[in-house]
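Researcher: Structure for this, please.
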Amino acid sequence: MYIFIESIDDLSFLNNELLKKSHIGVDTEFRRTTKDNMKLALLQINDGEEIYLIDALRIRDPGDSCAFLESPSVTKIFHSCKEDLEAVYAWTGRKMINIFDTQIANSFLGGSYSIGYQSLVEQELSIELEKNETRSNWFRRPLSSSQLKYAALDVEYLLYLYSIQIKDLKKFHKIEWLEEEVKFLIKNTFNPHLLELDTHRSISRSEEDLLLKRLNVLVRNIALKNNINETLLFSKRIQKYLLRSALVSGVDRACEEFTDWRKDLIMEDLTQLIL
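Model: Predicted structure, token format:
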């Protein structure tokens, strides 16, 4: 069901094999020790033929043996990748590229913004996964057979989900939106001060509240029209950031930090809103 990797030699061999793949499913088990500090315990890989569980506690320094994670020719398929990005970076010191996120893809197809992996597998594949190891201690060794089975299941269906979602994304011309969104997410993950809310208010609170209500309706209507999740488009916090920035610096300047697909959907209507 899975192959356990706990030596640098085995990881190096696996790395060479994974560099030949076009798509792999990836997940991690980690612990956040502080707000800005992550520690990786396990890295799970599904290459479409085998599932590999890589022990990051035994292999403390992977060196160049995880080059597949940086390879632009290998698509890494995650579900909700933000914390995985941080955990892998804490272990390897390197930032991953060429990522497909099934949670974000679901949002672009009109689904829930925060759907979990188990729920998405059940929604798309009608398979119900066990959740008995969700709060497990991944830093205890040896890992139990139940933990290893759970870890393997976390990547078993990622390639299937990808094959379903990529067809729908292509059908609705949203592939470029997803690619841009993932790059935006990576940028935000490693630059946490991006899009910080300015406490400065250029109009009265009552005026701002009224405009925020109108902006919220506008965002909801745009999301419905394009069949994407409203929170993915602009969360309530980002709506407030966007409005304050637009009122102080103008719409063009306010939208500079956002993805092109968001600009295309919001700029004209936002300009009309604040006139």
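Researcher: Any notable elements?
Model: Residues 3-189 form a domain with the Nucleotidyltransferase; domain 5 fold (CATH 3.30.420.10). The mean pLDDT is 93.
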